[in-house]
Amino acid sequence: MRLSGKTAVITGAASGIGAASARQFIKEGCRVAFGDIQQDKGDALCQELGSAAVFARCDVTKEEDVAGLVDLAVKEFGHLDIMFNNAGIVGAVGPIDSAVAEEWSATLDIMLNGVFYGMKHAARVMKPQGSGSIISMSSTAGLMGGLGPHAYAAAKHAVVGLTKNVGAELARFGIRVNAIAPASVATEMVASILTGDPDDIAATAEQLAVASPLLNRAGTADDVANAALWLASDESGYTNGHVLTVDAGITTGSTVEGPAFAEYQPMIRQAGTTGL
Q1: Residues recognised as catalytic
Q2: The domain that contains 15 carries what CATH number?
């Protein structure tokens, strides 16, 4: 019961990482108000989760929807302790010289402006109570180049910067602001890219396991949900402005093949000489 007595808002929670987080949070004693544009999936998940959950259709590009979801949590459960800005898409794809401006703007509207609205309205509620945890979804593509499309990478880099800045502002109010940066994990969105079938999670996990630096280990939605759980809980009570990677070490150089220096050879010295 690591979140006993707490209330959370999760955006983009009808499927994937958001749904896994909602289940995990409730399992740990939390009450959850979650939003998504996927009405049918949201209704079904809300029924599964029972009285500890409420669902509302939420388009994170609309500030009033995000504000309304925060207000719903406070109305139903009395307060807000955790804000998880999770909603996201792949967005605009293609070379920079032929990028479609409207697709670029729509991508940033979801993945950056949606996070901004979540932070803004969570802070509105959390500042007077003097506590709270705001968590936002970044990506390994927000820490390195070449791991995602341009608009996606720009948005995820921006989430990292916004996390650090807002964390610096809100710390004096007892509010912690952190982000999570996963690599590709076995979710519906990744499945649709790798297999063409958003429901084929098993085949997606098999492909990701082959490419993972951790032997035969794919990343899962639960892996990211567990990271969010830690950041949401009091166990991370002295962690602020941090970006927690969930990536099998990809951003620190881990590869399937291992590093080039993994095998012993005599120490290399100046001008090509070796040995002690």
Answers
A1: 139, 152, 156
A2: 3.40.50.720
Domain-located, residue 192: no
Q: What's the Cα-to-Cα distance from 134 to each of 79, 180, 248, rounded to whole Å?
A: 14, 11, 24
Instruction: Report the interhelical angle of 63-77 vs 114-129 (nearest 10°).
Output: 30
DSSP string computed for 49-71: HGGGEEEEE--TTSHHHHHHHHH
Question: Please, which residues bridge with residue 82 across strands?
Answer: 8, 133
123 belongs to a structural domain = yes
pTM above 0.90, yes or no: yes
Q: Do residues 30 and 52 make contact, with C-beta atoms less than 8 angstroms apart?
A: yes
Q: What domain count does the chain have? A: 1
State the Cα angle at 89 between 84 and 94, rounded to 5°.
Answer: 145
pLDDT one-digit tens code per residue, 189-234: 888 888 888 888 888 888 888 889 888 898 899 999 999 999 999 9
Q: Are 200 and 265 a contacting pair, CB within 8 Å?
A: no
For helices 221-232 and 16-27, give the axis angle rounded to 10 degrees.
50
